[in-house]
Amino acid sequence: MTVVVLIAIYREVKGWAGVLLCSTSGPMAHSVRRDAPELPDFSLLKRLARDQLIYLLEQLPGRKDLFIEADLMSPLDRIANVTTLKQHDVDKLYKVEYKPIVSTSDQLCFLIRPRIKTVKWICDVVNADKAFGRFRKYKIIFSPQKFYACENLLEEQGIFGDVTTDEWSFYLLPLDDDIISLELPEFFRDNFLEGDQRWVRTAGSALHLLHSVYGPFSKLYGIGRCSKMAYESWREQVEEGEQRARQAEIGNVFLIDRDVDLVTPLCSQVVYEGLVDDIFRIKCGCVEFGPDVTSSDKSIKVMLNSQDKVFNEIRNEHFSQVFGFLSQKARNLQTAYDKRSGMDIKQMKTFVSEELKGLKQEHRLLSLHIGASESMMKRKTKQDFQELLKTEHSLLEGFEIRECISYIEEHINRQVSMVESMRLLCLLSLTENGLLPKDYRSLKAQFLQSYGIDHLLTFSNLKQLGLLVEQQPGETLTVMESRVGKLVNDKTAGKLTDAFSSLAKKSNFRALGRRLNLVPKSDEEYDLRVPRDMAYIFSGAYIPLSCKLIEQVLERDGWTGLEEVTRMLNGHEFAVTAGSNGSDARVKTDSQRIILVMFLGGCTFSEISALRFLGREKGLKFIVVTTAITNSARLLESMLDNHA
Amino acid sequence: MAFITANWNPLGEAFYRKIELYEMGWSLRDGLKDCLVAAAPYGGPIGDARPQLEIYSSSGTNMASFPWKSGPVRQLGWTVCDDLLCIQEDGTVLIYDLFGAFKRHFSMGNEVVQNQMLEAKVFHSPYGTGVAIVTGASRFTLATNIDDLKLRRLPEVPGLQGAPSCWAVLTQDRQTKVLLANGADLYILDNTSCTPVTPPGLSPQACSIVNMAVSFSYKYLALFTDSGHLWMGSANLKDKLSEVDTKVRTPPKQMVWCRRPKSQQPSVVIMWDRLLLVAGERQHKYTLDEESVCVAELDGVRIVGGSRHELLQEVPSACQDIFKIASMAPGALLLEAHKEYDKSSQKADEYLREIKEQSVLGEAVRQCVEAAGYEHEPETQKTLLRAASFGKCFLSNYPPEPFVSMCRDLKVLNAVRDYTVGIPLTHTQYKQMTVQVLIDRLVYRKLYPLAIEICRYLKTPEYQGVSRVLKHWACAFCQTGVNFLDDMGPIMSGENQTLHSTVRTSYQRSMVTYLKNEMNRGDFFMTLRNQPVALSLYRQFCKHQEQDTLKDLFNQDDDHQELGNFYVKASYKEKKLEARLSLLQSAVDEYNKAKNEFAAKATEEEMKLLRFQRRLDEEKGEALLGLSLQETLHALLTSNFHKQAEQLYRDFRVPDKRYWWLKLTALAEKDDWEEMEKFAKSKKSPIGYLPFVEVCVKQHNKYEAKKYVSKVTPEQKVKAHLAIGDLEGAAEAAIDRRSEGEISTVLSRCSPTTDRALLERLNRARSTASKK
C-alpha cells in the first residue's frame, strides 16, 4: 500500500519538475568559510522564560482561566504549549478581546503587554464582577515588564487592591538559530514617532539578559539616539548587578536605530524569505500558506526556520535563483525515489524505514515552497512588479526622477495599493532629500483624493519622522545656524546645529550613497547567481545602509574615518570596550567573531540575509536581535492615523 | 541635665556657649590647612577648592567633588540661593550649583582682566548676592546683584597703593558702599565719592587698622588695630559701643561679629592660628586645636574645623533664666517642679505653689517653651516642653498656639539638623528664614521626600507645599533625560536597588499622580515645554487617558498644527454630520493659524465633499457619506450618475488622467462597452489606449479589447498585442520597431506550439537588431 501512495506523490513532483526545468538553474551553494564559529544555543532563553512562567502561574494556586493578549499568543506558543499550561492548573484559555467575559472560574489570570487599553479592559472586568457581587481572584502578569502608568490606572479605577501583579521577563524569543525577537512591533512608532521612550529600558534589559547568559561582551558599537540610551540602560544594569566571570559566547555587539536607515526597509524585498514576508506575512517565524499555495482547499501553517531544510537553502537567495534551485531539488528527489526501482525486498525495507520519512518530509516542504514561489510569481507579474522594481532602482540611483514621479502619480491614480503608493512616496522623499514643494503638494493632494482625507494625519506623522518631507531651501538653515552661533559659545552652537538638523530630518541619502558606495554602478552586469556583495539582496541595485555601516565599523573597529557619515546620520555613534579581558588571547578566538546586531525599531529579512552573506564573506557569525521583524508594509501601517 | 551649663562661659553680664553641631564626616588629609573654604550662612553648605573643588554639607557629607581645571580660584562664596561662586584671578566668576554642576559664568569687567584681582568679597544684601573686587590698580569694582549684573567701578582712593590693609562691604541707606582702611586712615567709598571717616573714640596708639568686621545685619562695625585694640561701634561710625585691649598684636586671621538679635552685649569673635577670642565688655579665650573657619550667623558664629563643627553663641536669656545655677526664675522653678513630679515627690507641689503665689505660672510656661527652642539636644528640648506642658495643666486660659507651634518647629528643626541632611539651623534662624525658604533649600538639595514630609507635617497649603515640591521633583526627573513615567515602573516594582526605600517609592508615586492633578496645570505645561522628552510622554499619556488635557496642552503651546490634527481625529468619532463639519471647521481654522495652507485646503475640500455626499444621499438615496473622493466618483460612475460625477470632477479639479482611469474601470466593471467606446472617442485619451486594452482583458472581453489595440501608440503596441494574446501581431509590431528587447519579450512568450516560421522570423529579426 505504502508504495502505491508513494508513486502517486512522485508523479505530482515530477509534473512540477517538468515546469521548473525550463527556468534558469545554477549553482546555489555558497562557499562557506570553514572557520565560521558555532552559534550559541539560544533555546536556553526559551527554557528560562518557560520556567518563570510556570513559577508565576503557580503563584496563583488552584484552577484558573488564562486570558492572553492576542499578540502574545504566538510567542507564548513557542515557549509553552497548551499541555504545559494545563499541567499547571490552567483551565480554559481565552484571547483578550476587549469584551465582557464569560468565564465561570473563581480565579482569573491575565497575561498581557503593559498597555493602557488592556489594563482598562481588566478594570472593567473586575468592576463588572464587583457590580454583580461576584468574588474572584485576579492576577495580571505583564510581559516583559510593567509600566507605572498601568499600575496607576489600576489604582485610579479602584482595583489596585483586588489584583496582584507580576512581571514575566520574557524579553527575547529566539525565532531561529540567529534571529531573536523582542516581539514589540509598537516599538517603532512609540519610540520614533511619539517620542515615548518607555521601551528603551526594555531593550536595555533584553541586552542585559543576553549579556548575563552569553556575555560578557567585550566591545559595543552603536549609532542612534535610542541605541545610545539602550546601551546606557544596559550599562547601568550591568553595574548594578554582580559580575560573573565566564567564557564569553558573544564578543561584540552592534546597536542601531531603525531611523538611521529608513530607505532599506522601504525597498521591495526580492530575497526569498523577505519576499515571503512581504506577500504572506511571516508571523512569529510562522507563515500561513493559503489554498493558492497548497493547491488544496485548506491553508497550512508552516514554521520557517533552519529546521526546514528546503527553506534553509533558499531563504537568502535572490528570487530569480529560487526556481532553479527548486527544480534541481525536485530532480534530486526524483533520483532518490528512483533508487527504489531494482531494489529487492530487503533493500526496499531499509529504504522505507530509513530514507522514506526524510524524503517524504522533504517532498512535502518542496511542494509547499514551489507552490509559494508560483503564487508569488503570479502576484508579482500581475502588478507589473518589474516596472515597480525599475522605478525603485531609479530612485535609489537618482536617475529619471521625473519619470518616477509620473509612475508614482499613476500608481496613486489607479489606486493600486495605498501602502505601496505611500511607500513609493516615502522612498522618493528619502532618496531625494525631500520633495520639491510643487510635487509635495500635488502628490499629497492626489493621494488624499485616492485614499481619503483622513491620511492628512498620516502625512503629519510621516513628516514628523522625516519619511515624507518638503525640500527645504538649503541656505535658510545655515544662515540661521550661523546667526545663532554668533550669539552663543561653540558648544551650545553645536547642540543647536544638532537640534536643527534633527528638526530638518535630512536623509542625506545621495551623499551617504556616494560616501559609502551604496549604489553600485548600474552599467555593470550583476550576476545574481554569484553575489559579489550585499547588494545582491536588492538585485545588485543597492547595498543596505544599515548593513554597510555594520561592515564598515567592524572593519575599522570603530567610527574613525566615518566622521562625515555619522554627521550626516545625526551622530549619536559610540564604540566602547566593555570587557576587561579583551586582551585575553583565548577569548579572541571564537566569541570575537560572533557579533550580535540589535535593531531598535525592527529589521527586515533582507537585512538579515545581507548580514548572513557578510558573515560568510568575513568568517563571522551574526546574531540579529530585533524589536520585531518589519517590512515596508508594517512600517508604514504603524504610521497610519486614519482611524479613530 | 546637670551639665547643661558646663560649656557656658561668662562674659560680662552674659554667658557664651559653644555647642558641637557635628563631628565632620569628611576625611581631609591635612584638615583645612591650605584650603580655600567658604561656608554659606543659615547652615548652608561648605565649599572648598584647590586643586580640587569639593562641596560638603554642614555635617561634612560630600555632595560634589571634581578637579579644578579652570584658572586659579582666589575666592569662593555662596549666593543666597545656595549656588557656589568661584572667583578667578582675572575676575571671571563661575557659578556652580551645590552638586557641582556648572550653571553659568560672568566677568567682572576688563579692568579686572587687565590688572588682575587682589582680593574679592562675596556679600549679601536685600538685593541679592553681590561681589566686590579690588584690583592690582587699587580700584574697586562692585556688582550688587549677580543675577542682574551691573558692574560699578568705584572712585579712586587717594594714596592707596596695592590692596588696602583691610576692607568690608556695607549696605547703608539702600546703597552698597565699601569701607576700607589704608594704614590708620579709614574711607567710605560709594558710587561717586571717597570720603575719609574717623571712628569716634578710636584709641590713638594705633597706626594701622588691620582687620574689620561688619555684623550680619550691617548695623555694627568692629575694627582691629595693630596695637591690639578692638573698637566696636555702629556701622555708620556715629557711636562707639566699647573698646577692648586684646593684648594680642598679631593681625587676626578672621574676625566676625557674634551677637544675637536684641542682645545688648556687643561681642566679636577674633581668630588667630590657635586662639579664639570672644571679646565684648570682657574677654574669653578658647584654644583651637585645629585649623578652623568662622561663619557669621544671625545669632552666633559657626566654627568649622577639620574634625568638628561648632556653634558659638550668647546663651539666650530664656535659657539663662532657667539653667543658671541657683536661678529662681519662674521657668527654672517650673522645671524643678516637673522633675519632682516625675519622681512622684511632693516637692513638686511646693515649687508649683511658689510659682502660683507669684502668679507667674504663665511666664514660667512661656520661658520653658522659649528655652526649648534654643536647645539643640532633643532630650533637653523634651524635658523643657514636658515641664511646659505640665505647667499648662494648671492654667485654664493659656493659649495653646505657642506650645504647639514650638513642638512643630522643633520636629522640623531636628529633622533638618540630622546628620544626613546637615542643615544646623537654630530656631532664630529658622524663623528669620521662613518655612518657604527652608523647603526651597531642601528641594535644591534634592531632598524631595523630606521636603514633602515637612510640608505635610506643617500642613502647608498644597499650592505652596507638596505640589510645589512635586513639581520640582518632576522637573528634576525630566532633566535627567530619563523617561520618568517608565523610570517609575522599575522603581515601584523594587527592581532598582538604588532606590529601594518604601518611603521614597510612595513619594515618587505621588509625584507622578501629581501630573494628572488639575492643580498648577498651566505652570506644569509651561515647565514641560522645555522638556521635550517629558512633553512627548505626557502627550502619550493624555492620548490614552485625557483627550481634553491634550487639547489644553496644545493650546498652551499654540501648537496649531497639532490642534488641527486633534480636531480632525475628533471628527472621525463624531457620528452626526453637523458636529463633524464644525469640528473640521475648527481644524481648518487651526491649520490656517499654523500657516499650513495645504492641510487647511484639504480639510475644506473634505467638508465640501461631505456636504455634496449628503445632498446626493438625500436626493438619490445613495450611501456615499464618508467615502473618499475617488470612491465617490467610482460609486457615481458605476451608478450612472455621470452628470454628478462630471460636476465633482470639475469642482474638485480632479486630474484628467485620474478621471479617465476611474471612468474607464467603472465602465468596464459594469460591462458598459458601448459607453466605453463613446468615452474613448470623446477626446484624445490622456492616459493613452493601452489601459483600455488592459481593462477589457481584465474583464475577459478580448473582443472589445481588440478595438483599442489599433489606437495604442507604437511604443506600446507589442504590449497591447500580447495583452490580448495575439502573438503574431506582437511579433509584427516588435519586428517593425526593430527593438531587441521587445523581440525578446515576444520570444519569451512563445511556446513549443508556436508557429516555426514566426519563431524563425523573430530570431532573425533579433540578430539583425542586436547587430545594429
TrEMBL record, chain A:
Q: Which domain of life is it from?
A: Eukaryota
Q: Which GO terms describe its biological process?
A: protein transport; vesicle-mediated transport
Question: Per the record, GO CC terms?
Answer: late endosome membrane; lysosomal membrane
Give the matching Pfam families: Sec1 (PF00995)
Signal peptide (UniProt feature, chain positions)? none
Q: Which UniProt keywords apply?
A: Protein transport, Transport
Q: How does it sit in the membrane?
A: Peripheral membrane protein
Q: Where in the cell is it found?
A: Late endosome membrane; Lysosome membrane
Q: Which SUPFAM superfamilies does the annotation name?
A: Sec1/munc18-like (SM) proteins
Q: Which InterPro entries match?
A: Sec-1-like_dom1 (IPR043154), Sec-1-like_dom3a (IPR043127), Sec1-like (IPR001619), Sec1-like_dom2 (IPR027482), Sec1-like_sf (IPR036045), VPS33_dom3b (IPR043155)
Q: Which family does it belong to?
A: Belongs to the STXBP/unc-18/SEC1 family.
Q: State the name under which the record lists this protein.
A: VPS33B late endosome and lysosome associated
UniProtKB/TrEMBL annotation, chain B:
| Domain called Vps16 C-terminal: residue spans | 510-766
**Which Gene Ontology biological process is one annotated for this entry?**
vacuole fusion, non-autophagic
* Membrane topology note: Peripheral membrane protein
Where in or outside the cell?
Late endosome membrane; Lysosome membrane
**Transmembrane feature ranges:** none
Q: Which Gene3D superfamilies has this protein been placed in? A: Vps16, C-terminal region
Alphabetized, the UniProt keywords read: Coiled coil, Endosome, Lysosome, Membrane, Protein transport, Transport
What does the protein in this record do? Plays a role in vesicle-mediated protein trafficking to lysosomal compartments including the endocytic membrane transport and autophagic pathways. Believed to act as a core component of the putative HOPS and CORVET endosomal tethering complexes.
Q: Outline the subunit composition.
A: Core component of at least two putative endosomal tethering complexes, the homotypic fusion and vacuole protein sorting (HOPS) complex and the class C core vacuole/endosome tethering (CORVET) complex. Their common core is composed of the class C Vps proteins VPS11, VPS16, VPS18 and VPS33A, which in HOPS further associates with VPS39 and VPS41 and in CORVET with VPS8 and TGFBRAP1. Interacts with RAB5C. Interacts with STX17, MON1B. Associates with adapter protein complex 3 (AP-3) and clathrin:AP-3 complexes.
Q: What is this protein called?
A: Vacuolar protein sorting-associated protein 16 homolog
Which organism encodes this protein? Hucho hucho
